[in-house]
Target: START domain-containing protein
Amino acid sequence: MITNKVIAYSLFCLAIAPDFGPSFGLLFALPVNGPLAGRRPPHAALSAMRKQWSEAERDKILSRSGDYWKMDRLRGKVSFGSSSFIRTALDGADKDSIQRWLADDRSIAMSIWDPNLVSNPLPKVYRLKLMTLMFVTIQLAPSVDVKMYTDDKTGVFKLESVAFEPGIQLLPGIKMSAESLGIVIDVVGELYPSRDGKGVDGKIGFVTSGDLPPPMRMLPEQAFKSSMSTINSTIMKFAQESFQKGAREKFREFKRKESTATAAT
Model:
């Protein structure tokens, strides 16, 4: 029976979600497997790497445009995300210099995220730490491991999540395990020189999925769509703005190093 207490609690959860921004999405979707969809994330080392991404899996996410969402209310399963183009002009760029820069996975990794929050646990795998998030009685301190490399055949720089640690902490008295939330996130992306050679173009997409606690399954569909749309736009805006700023800075640094090396020879 759906009691007034259950409905009130559900509405309360939804009402405070915007105050925590991406935490609402991270709680139910993060599995990027990076969480790797369907794959248990390693808690320390990357001992359980995700299988190699297939082009079909990547294309499924990257071929979308804008927001995506799917919900099975009966089973309590939900998944949502967004895919968007990335276009960034780079000062003094041409196709050859951009292609050389894209071959430097470390420089690209530091362009995508705050360098102070990035570590390099394995070759071409970068661990990106997120800020601590709080959702009702659940605290998250997530990190996601992302493989970054240049495709030798196409010259396209690719990124794909390979592992995820949600860093969930449940407050005392909460009768729910972190595992029961089924948190998972899939993230993929690609970068390549723009047609005019003056910058980089690309696309990034993510899908978050997980299990909704019973009280939240009672919320109306429009409420979910509205909340998820806010989360998607917040995440995408942050990702795009971070890369545009970081890419310009790191590319200028790359060009300076090349010039210095050339002058020294």
